[in-house]
Amino acid sequence: MILSSLYMEVNKNEKGKLKKDGKDFLKDIIALICIIAVCFGGYKLYANYKTSSAQNDTSYKVKTKRNNKYNGVYSLTKLDENGKNTWDGLMLYVKNDKIVSCARFDYVYMEDVKTKLIEKYGDKYKNMSNKELHDDHLNLEIADTESELLSSGISSVLDTGFFSGGGISSFNEKGVFTGLGEFVCPDKVDFEKVTDIKTDYDYMQSCLIVPGYDEDSREVWLSKLLSNEKSEYHDGYKLIKYNGFDDIQKRCRLDDGKCIDNLNELFNAKLNKY
After folding, report:
1. Can you say how many angstroms the Cα of residue 34 is from the centroid of all Cα atoms in its chain?
2. Does 21 fall in a domain?
3. pTM over the 0.70 mark
4. In DSSP terms, which residues pair with 104 in a beta bridge?
5. What are the record keywords, sorted (predicted)?
C-alpha cells in the first residue's frame, strides 16, 4: 500500500514535470518566433528606408546619351586651385561607358606628411628624404601623422580590382592614400537589393557616383558622371586613361599596375598587360 502510494506520487510528479517542460518548450518556441518576426520586421523597415532613400535622390534624374568611347582603366581625380592633381578621387574600370568597378581614394603627398611632421616634432625630420619617410614603417610618429592627414578609410567588402580600403597604402615614396568608397556592378544596379546591410545605392554613394546613374539601362555611365551638373566630378577633376600596366606604373599614384591582372580575372576585361 505504501509502495503503491509512493509510486502514484512519483508518477504525479513526473507528469507535472513533463507538463511544465512542455509549457517551457512552448514558451521558448513562441519567444523564438517573436524574435524572428521582430528581426524580419526590422529588416523590412531598413530595406524600405534604403529603397526610399534611393528613390528620393533626384541627382540622377537627368537624361543623357551613352558615349561608348569610354573603355578601359581611368583615374578621375580632383585638381587644386593651382591646377595640381591632388589624386583625391576615383579609379575606374569602364566598358562601353558603363562603370563596372570603381574605388574612391583620399591621397596625401609625402611632402605634406613631412611638413606636418616638422610642424609637430621639429627639425628631426627636416633632413629625411621622402624615401626614408616612406620606408620607416615602424615609426609611429609618421604613421600617426599620415592617419591624421588622411580621411578615415573604409573596411573593404567588395573586390573592385583596385585597392579599396582596410588601411593606409603607398606604392612609392611620392604619397600615401586610403580607400573611401567602392562599387562593383558587372550586371545591373538594383536599388532595392539589400546585401550585407548595404545596397547598390549605398556603394554608389560611397564613390559619389549616383549622378551618373541611368534609369533606363540601370547602369552608371562615366559620360553622365562627367556631364551631369549635379555630379561632384562635373568640374574641377582630371580624367586620365591608362594604356596598360607600364602606363599605370609611370603615371598613376593610386595603383601600381596590379589592377590590370585583377580586372582581367574578375571581369574578363582583356586589358593590355604591358
Report:
1. 34
2. no
3. yes
4. 90, 181
5. Membrane, Transmembrane, Transmembrane helix
